Amino acid sequence: MGRSQETFRKKEIKDKKAKKRKEKEEKRLARKENQKKGGLDDMIAYVDENGVISPTPPDKKGKGEIDPHDIEI
Question: Is the residue at 1 inside a domain?
Answer without folding.
Answer: no
